Amino acid sequence: MTATITRPPDPPSTPATSAPAGTTPRPSRRTPTPSAELWAELALAAVTIATAVSFCRLFLGWDFLWPLLLAGITSHLLAVACRRGGWGGVVSFVASLAVAGVVVTVTQYRDTSAYGFPTFDSWDSATADLAEAWDRFAVVVAPVPNRAGYLVASMLAIWLAAFLADSFAFRGWATFESLLPSGVVFVFVSALASPRNRISSTALYLAAALAFALLHRQALQQRQGTWLASQRDGATRATLRVGALVGGAALVAGAVLGPSLPGAGEAPLLSTKGGSGDGTRVTLSPLVDIRGRLANSSATLAFTVRASEATYWRLTALDRFDGKIWSSSRSYRDVSGPFTTQARSTVLRQDFTIAGLDSIWLPAAFSPINVTGGSDLAFDPETSSIVTGADSSNGQTYSVVSALSRPTKAQLEGASGPLPASIASTYLPLPADFPTVVTQQAAKVTAGATTPYEKARRLQDWFRVNFTYDLSVRAGHDENAIVSFLRQGRGYCEQFAGTFAAMARSLGVPARVAVGFTPGMAKGDGTFQVLGKYAHAWPEVWFNGIGWVAFEPTPGRGAPGLEDATGVAAQQADQPATSSTATTTPGSTTSRTTVPGEPVEPETGLLPFNAGGQGSTTDHHQRPLGLTVALWLLGLAVLAGGWLLVVPALRKARWRRRRDRASSPADRALVSWAELGELLDRLGMAPIASQTPHEVAERAAVTTTADPRLVQRIADRTSLAAYAPQGVSADEADCSQRDVSALEHEAWDRASWLTRLGWLADPRPLWRRDDSERSSFEPA
Q: CB of 580 within 8 A of CB of 594?
């Protein structure tokens, strides 16, 4: 028995706008509606945004939010692009990690980047910041300043959660599992967070999660399909309405009634905050916040102070060095009445208004003897520090009276004698594994010095002559950072102060690190505006009979009122020295001027690491974020434009070569059928190899927006070309090619601009082998 294939009537050369006589009229089609999958993707992004917002309970202020939102949204967009581009999970994950590194570098380490791309310096800075954050994790209680280490860890957590959520949701199509990554992050944040914004952040996250669950369920139903197609939209709307109503009622009830339930205000059964409940408070050392203020908040107003003269505005002093960080553990008492302190020669009154300091420590000139005003203030006489019991000092106004110490050089040279036991036991210890190369360096610098003052001046002047102020070096002042700092010969105040204090202790000179601000901008009416860029750290040295005296090893900085003792003119960021004082360090062999900027020959024989700021050829310049982003956007625009031009041109050239290679009308008809298969693939229905052309046409009629008449005609000619002995004529092959072109134009007109861009940018047809493009019913 042989099958008879009937040749269909030839259609007109172009598709008619109305159905010809004797044919079935084209069925009407509904206007395409936005895909349920797209809405589910948007809802999943909203879950990530809600998770990022919940970090407000961990950080002070809201500056942390934009890097987290950038990380989450970029991760979602990249995951969607890789998934819709047909990339596998492993390749997509590798690409996501690479882009995550770029985003973190641009937002946190652009000063060490190469036009936004991470370098080895970026990697070193990031790992150092993450290690620093990990070291402090066990002792720091929220809220904390948005230090780089915490921000990088948070960005990576948000990025990974967004990528995993997209994979679970739209690769595995699992609703519950899709919420697990963000849920883990949200619960982790909630376990460590402060009580503020607890209800609002929880309600926001639950609302976003509920919306995603409903929309994802609908997308799954639409993807799987149902024989009740005509009832699908109505059921969807009903599901969304009921789900939104029930979920909204639950959220309102939880937010309104939850705090009123019995036991809501009681202590938790399991505390995640640590501590003993005895009023002890552990918080981040102010020293680790300096680089963030200098680099990221340099133009932010920290506070305003009215005073009759300029001085350093001190926050606190750090007396313990464990090899990783300078810190302090002190007991504070209420500020009631004058403080007990030794008499000073000069008394200074200051009136402070705190704006954006974001600190529990309150600034004051050293050393305070009385404070009035403020809220919930306490004082530690050992470090002369004022603190507030609130989360932050922002918004506070108070007045301080300080007794200033202005010792002369002669007084300090004469200060000698055995140290008090309390001073020696607290301000001389160093870690047992403190690097010997650092102690040897300190001994070389101070060789021949006999008094504490001579040693302190030798150290100070050595740093100011041989080192360069550079904010681009990695943060930190641990032992490794000290060794790296001495090798490079460059750093900023954190390293200068911490290294000076450690080296002084190795010489038997009691020292600690003070943290605060330089005077700021004098406004002419007796007030000083102190911005973030004036944040500073400096060492303080103990002298018998005198007390603590500030020294200034950081180039470009100088404390007002201590010019005679330190030999350094008053100076701060963006301001030249007010005077130049040529001095000779006692016992030294090098005479120099202390005004930074003048050419000074470095001391020889004192740099075992072959370091020195003037001998270094590395120069880092912090590139503005706007310029980096603009360069990236420009580069991406050029690449995207080139891609959208090259890929379609290559695809057209490929099909042109296939048509040229077709030697008969039947081969040309089969090429047109292969082109139709690529079009149906773009429309979401790739031909199945086991199906005949007529079966493919029947599927296309119900699953795509392609004109079923044209698809059917192309299928008829394809069957003739593949199976009929007589094949097809040249006119019929031309008709198939024209019909395919008509279908492509129709699909293009119906598609949104975003879909069109996706079609233009899709490179997959370029790497398909010719054999795979041939349908299973094509002759070999």
A: yes
